[in-house]
Amino acid sequence: MNPRIEEALTTLGDEVLVRKAQEDDDRAFGELVSRYETKVYSLALKMVRNPEDAEDVLQDTFLRAYRGIKSFKGNSTFSTWIYRITANSALMRLRKKQLPTVSIEDADEREAPVSIADWSPGPVDQLLNQELQQVMDEAIEALPAEFRQVFVLRDIEEISNAEVAEILDLSVAAVKSRLHRARLKVRNRLAAYFNENQKQKRAMGAQR
Question: What's the CATH number of domain 1-98, 1.10.1740.10, 2.60.40.1120, 3.30.540.10, 3.30.1600.10?
């Protein structure tokens, strides 16, 4: 590509690039890919928790976007649209791989939070250690696919409830409900970890 043309494309906004891509300008679509591929891969990886699957989601996302770019009406931003495709592709992959689980519609909404013995028994770094990160990763991976979507978008990517609702084609109320239940499940997993740590410390103290 001519360096001047390439430089000109990088200065254009998403809306202009989308219009050009809809007019069969593959260079404009290529610029959109360059602009979003890292974000799409990062989001996919946080949802599917596997680099190989994330790569597949990345490829599927931009293939679907390329095929559907002319039908994009601009009712949302391009970023919201591409994240919606990413989330749907990740969800389909999770559903194919996931063991049978209770439907989120039938999940126990009365699940109570587990009591946490002490979340800060030592230095702050202890809360950020590798073991705790592994527990957090396992807690996220254990979430039903639909809960994981919302948790990743809202609490990890820090996208607003309104935009998460738009990305997932849900009501804001549904997003809040799923997020609450996802947070509760993650919290209970972390609570079990902290409580077990406390038991081990007490046992070690008793042996001294």
Answer: 1.10.1740.10
